[in-house]
Amino acid sequence: MRITVLGAGTMGSGIAHAAATAGHEVALRDVEASYVEDGIDGIDATLAEGVERGKVTDAERAAALDRITGTTELAEAAAGADLVVEAVPEDAELKRETLADVETHVDDDAVLASNTSALSVTELAGALERPERLLGLHFFNPVHLMGLVEVVVAERTDDATLATARAFVDSLGKETVEVRDSPGFASSRLGVALGVEAIRMYETGVAGVADIDAAMELGYNHPMGPLELTDVVGLDVRLDILEHLREELGERFRPPQALKRKVHAGKLGKKTGEGFYVWADGEAVRPADEPAAGDADGAGAER
């Protein structure tokens, strides 16, 4: 398959990485050349880490990188694509504009997919001349490690589109769950519900960040606690999803003030170095509400 990925950020570059590693030719497109370069550099770094850990050979790394072409030109990226995966920021109007634009450049049999984690795929499809060719392919971060892709079937998604999407996910060695288009789908709705309750517990002093996460990691065998996961996903992303779900499903998804305060302060999690945890070199160092080692009076720690 020839795969086009629109958006070279964390998710877009992750999807491009997974597709290229699986043997697909990939066009990675973004609006600025620097974004494309950063995306490909990130893929290279992740593959290099895989080589160091013995998960990837040097030859496999080189072959995967050779399969990826970066560009800022939409027509160039879309030419000959069998599947286009839109992975631009989680803004409904931007996604609609991007999908409508790319539809004018692809062949009649090309399938379009959105990597949205919560927005209505049926509404996004309304921007297309042929809405039956669109569905949701919700990947999880980090894409190259996570084994699940949520396939979101919109109101007018046809069988041929669904079959192509399933074949692509199968080729990546990942599993699918198929859901009907509804607010938050299955994964975001359940994941955010757990995350928002964990934030409320932290906010009301039920327990500290590390203890809340340990309860789920050790008591329920979750690989990562809900507050650390919120940091990895991005507090701003979680806030956007909560606001959307509150509008669609009601007050049980009302964003906690603690989350809003951190977002307004620019504490967005792993990508900014602080959220519910303090991060260094990609690792959670300590909860942000605990003083650093040697800081006996807690100066600089979150209150």
Brief synopsis:
With 303 residues, this protein is of the alpha/beta class.
Along the chain, the helix and strand elements come as: EHEHHEHEHEHEEHEHHHHHEE
Mean pLDDT: 93
Main sheet summary? 8 strands, mixed
Distance between the termini: 52 Å
Rg computed from alpha carbons, rounded to a whole number of angstroms: 20 Å
Q: Shape, please?
A: globular
How many β strands by DSSP? Answer: 10
Which regions are unreliable across 5 or more consecutive residues at pLDDT < 50? 296-303
Q: Classify the helix fraction into a percent range.
A: 40-55%
Count of alpha and pi helical runs: 12
The side-by-side strand order for the widest beta sheet comes to 3-2-1-4-5-6-7-8
Kindly name the structural category.
alpha/beta
Strand content: 15-25%
Domain 3-hydroxyacyl-CoA dehydrogenase NAD binding: 3-181
Organism: Halobaculum lipolyticum
Binding site for NAD(+): 7-12, 30, 90, 95, 117, 141, 271
GO molecular function: (3S)-3-hydroxyacyl-CoA dehydrogenase (NAD+) activity
How does this structure look, described?
The structure is a single chain. The chain is α/β, with parallel strands linked by helices and 303 residues long. The chain has helices at 10-21, 33-52, 58-66, 74-78, 92-103, 121-125, 159-171, 187-203, 209-219, 226-233, 235-249, 257-264; strands at 2-6, 25-29, 68-71, 83-86, 111-114, 134-139, 148-153, 175-180, 277-280, 283-287. β4 (83-86), α5 and β5 (111-114) form a beta-alpha-beta unit. It has twelve helices and ten strands. The chain starts with a strand and ends in a 16-residue tail after the last strand. The strands form two sheets. Strands 3-2-1-4-5-6-7-8 form an eight-stranded mixed beta sheet, sandwiched between helices. Its EC number is 1.1.1.35. It is an enzyme of class 1 (oxidoreductase). Keywords: NAD, Oxidoreductase. This is 3-hydroxyacyl-CoA dehydrogenase family protein. GO terms for molecular function: (3S)-3-hydroxyacyl-CoA dehydrogenase (NAD+) activity.
